[in-house]
Design goal:
Blueprint: E1 3-4, H1 7-20, E2 33-36, E3 40-46, E4 54-56, E5 60-69, E6 72-78, E7 90-94, E8 99-100, E9 120-123, E10 134-138, H2 144-149, E11 166-175, E12 182-187, E13 193-198, E14 208-212, E15 216-218, E16 220-223, E17 227-239, H3 256-265, H4 285-293, H5 302-311, H6 322-334, H7 336-345, E18 348-349
Parallel strand pairs: 3-7, 4-7, 5-10
Antiparallel strand pairs: 1-18, 2-17, 3-17, 5-6, 8-9, 9-16, 10-15, 11-14, 11-17, 12-13, 12-16
The structure holds calcium ion (2 copies).
One calcium ion binds near residues 249, 251, 254 and 258.
Length: about 350
């Protein structure tokens, strides 16, 4: 499952790790550096519109993904001319011509998350549909400075198996109509679906699609309910930056300013500047370890600085709680790796929710 971290338990783990001096084994040396974007929200209307927003329908448009260089990303709607459109003022529209009610859904399409006889909406991978949106995913507008920083990597999954300058499009959340599922896949030479996104089994790290710098691809998009969808994605790529882990504000020092950034954003999906030094798009314990490995003792005790940083962030749990003491005692018996495992299991699945009203 692609998940939101439980921030409070992560803080407890940080406190426990500090108490046990577990930071010494961390290492940040590497030639390449993964970078992740902040979450980006892409909006779709399935026979429904967002208020005060332009409907993007009946054109060939690509979802342009950008790595702009220096750890910054972006995305926009390609209108084939002029600047990219903003997702704040435009939404992709899935019209009635793409509405189907199959009596039987073939087994290989079970990932749609629809039942036999249920109406679904599909944006086609094929180009011969003049009455509907033809939506691709592209890395064609990445500026030269961004491409120059990108280095070959192999995501090792989905359509990103070979080494190349890949940009990852990860699904991290969907806010849509009640019971809605979203999927993204291609039909390739074997005539079988290659599934990249499918919310029917939750949202996980393998809900990812890959496009190379300079390329664009088309795929099938399927929605199982009418209404409006806000789809949260994060972009990732591999770079040659080799920045100093922990230096969130890029001033050349790993100090309290950086620790404060990490504390403020702990447990969130975020980018380097908010504390994601590992490039997985999450600000969590591993980022704290990365910062800790480069912490200069001249800045004082890391434990004390962390306590100060956390004190400025509202949260219900305190690191001095009895629960923390119990966890520290537990770690003394079982070791550091157990802490990470506890964190990974303390997650909460992001699922399509009932918050958005449907319109048909
Ligand atoms: Ca700094
Ligand atoms: Ca991280």
């Amino acid at each position: 499952m692609r998940q939101a971290k439980n921030a409070n338990q992560l803080h407890v783990c940080v406190a426990a790790s500090l108490a046990l001096g577990l930071l010494a084994s961390s290492s940040t040396a590497r030639a390449d550096q993964m970078m992740a974007s902040k979450p980006i929200t892409i909006r779709f209307g399935v026979e429904a519109d967002f208020a005060s927003s332009n409907r993007v329908d009946q054109i060939h448009s690509d979802l342009e993904l950008l790595y702009n260089s220096a750890g910054t990303f972006g995305a926009g709607i390609d209108f084939n001319a002029g600047p990219l459109g903003s997702f704040a003022t435009n939404h992709y529209y899935v019209n009635a011509s793409r509405r189907f009610t199959p009596a039987t859904i073939p087994a290989q399409f079970a990932f749609w998350g629809a039942s036999n006889g249920q109406t679904v909406w599909t944006l086609s991978q094929a180009s011969s549909l003049p009455n509907a949106l033809w939506l691709g995913v592209a890395g064609e507008n990445i500026p030269a400075a961004g491409t120059a920083e990108m280095v070959d990597w192999s995501p090792g999954q989905n359509n990103g198996t070979a080494a190349a300058k890949w940009l990852e499009l990860s699904l991290v959340g969907v806010r849509g109509p009640a019971g809605a599922n979203v999927s993204l896949y291609q039909i390739l030479a074997n005539n079988q679906p290659s599934v990249y996104w499918a919310t029917s089994d939750g949202i996980a790290s393998n809900d990812a699609f890959y496009v190379q710098s300079g390329a664009h691809l088309h795929a099938w998009w399927v929605f199982t309910q009418p209404g409006t969808y806000e789809i949260d994605v994060q972009l990732r790529t591999n770079t040659n930056l080799n920045w100093l882990a922990g230096d969130a504000n890029r001033d050349g020092f790993v100090d309290r300013l950086d620790l404060n950034a990490l504390a403020q954003n702990f447990g969130t999906r975020n980018d380097w500047f908010a504390g994601d030094f590992t490039g997985d798009g999450l600000v969590d314990l591993q980022d704290f370890f990365a910062l800790g490995a480069n912490w200069n003792p001249a800045n004082g005790s890391l434990a004390a600085a962390w306590a100060d940083a956390r004190a400025s962030v509202p949260e219900p749990a305190t690191i001095a709680s009895l629960g923390t003491m119990a966890l520290v005692a537990l770690r003394r018996r079982s070791g550091a790796t157990t802490c990470t495992q506890v964190v990974e299991r303390s997650t909460e699945t992001v699922r399509p929710g009932p918050s958005t009203p449907t319109t048909t």
